[in-house]
Specification:
Elements (H helix, E strand, L loop, with lengths): L2 H10 L3 H16 L8 H11 L21 H4 L2
Amino acid sequence: MNRHVNAISGRLSLRPPQRHSLEILDRITEIAPPGKGADTTAVMEAIRSEFPSVTDFEREFPSLCALRSPPAWARRA
């Protein structure tokens, strides 16, 4: 497992679903490194090859911000 995933997960005390989301994000950045001018069609194909349930980016650019849920105390506000 990536040492950064382990460090972030430990520091933030992530629960298993949150850690799994972080692991997915880590894998996505490995197979399709973020960067300007990326071909979104090629990026989508690369991501879909490993995560077939992905259908769209919802925007003109890859946005992965919603992968990690906010903690319970933040949702109450």
